[in-house]
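Question thread 4412

I'm putting together a teaching handout and wanted feedback from people who do this every day. The idea is simple: show students a protein as raw sequence, then show them the structure tokens that encode its fold, then repeat with a second protein so they can compare. Below is the first pair exactly as I plan to print it.
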Amino acid sequence: MLVAAAVCPCPPILVPEVAAGAGPELDAARNASLDALGVLAAARPGLLIVAGPAGPEERGSFLPGSAGSFAGFGVDLTVRLGEAPAGAPAPRRPLPGSLAVGAWLLSRARWDGAPVEGFGVGESLATDLCLRTGADLAARADRVALLVMGDGSACRTVKAPGYLDERAAGFDAEASRALGGADVDALTALDESLAYELKVAGRAPWQVLAGAARGAGLGGQLLYEDAPYGVGYTVAAWS
């Protein structure tokens, strides 16, 4: 059963070593993300699952101790998703970027609570399959927490990765309202096609959260909402 969730953005520049000189611009998002992880720790889950967008070869489960690297961004930094069980070989399947950012956040927060696993969510996964996946993840243990990684639209300004789309601000506002209010129905209703057009990386992971949270009776709190670099970033905590 889902007992808590944290929703965080997953751009690599959230990691200061990757952001370099731009690091301070995302301090508020980093701090809010760490506050959201504090809510997860307070819930004392028996299992923490980090879920985030993943490419075709990165979908599915990742074992505790799975490693992710930021070498592709010119940074000699490797992070791990919790610790592999004693005596078990280190997992060899590398983390997708979103889960690597999640692993970095957990390291920054000095997570030492429940075991940590990962789940890569295909960005094009249909809503009904997202909901089913979320329900399956929530059933993994008596007390499950989710760290859900995902960005909003990439079309908020002319300098955004997807250029300016006038529909982006409205989509992000509704998504942030739903995430901040733990509104499962509103998350379920997010438009798949529009999300694709607006380059929303978080749509599928957010709907996985909706599937996991249905019936759990969680309340939400919006901790951060902004669009630096023209990309919508939201941080929320559910408990």
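The second pair follows. I'd like the answer to focus on this one:
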Amino acid sequence: MSELNHPILQESFEIIDREIGQHSLSLQEYAIARRVIHATADFDFLDLLKFSPEVIEIALDSLSGQTPIITDVTMVQQGIKTLVTKTFNNPLISAVDQIEISLPGKTRTETGILQCYQQYPRGIYVIGNAPTALLALCSQIEYNSRIPALIIGAPVGFVKVIEAKEALTMTKVPYILVQGRKGGSPVASAIVNALLILAAEKWL
């Protein structure tokens, strides 16, 4: 559904294509990387994105099946809300907004993610801000037979970020991961939006 892409966005993509030239990503992987680069103006993401086997097809099927999308923070939720509404209208939940008081020793985002996992164990989880939320989620998955459809792991920062991303790679959950310290809500939103466009092109 090319009408979901604004002309200015298309022009930006053309500039990115020219500057990147040849690359080793698949067409679908590149579509995701290109949207992240557009959101950040950072070409490092061409090499930082890591995809588990078959995760893109799993993501497209999950999105088209209206699987709930759980974001760690409201900024990610707002960043994907427009395209979610225009495409498959998945239930869209911000974990941090689900609770008022955090569990002892945990942040509100961690607490919200754990609560959402109890309610939506097979949801699509999108972490764009809080590495502690990703760590908490991965820890719960280790002892649970019900696993998310996929996890997008793109927290940003310096504390527990690398550990959280490494924990994700050790789970049995399909994932799209931003390696290293980089990431953030705009990156996580861009990944989901790219997947929504790919799913819309396939199914709508």
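Top answer:
Good format. For the second protein you could add a caption like this: The chain has nine helices and six strands. The radius of gyration is 16 Å.
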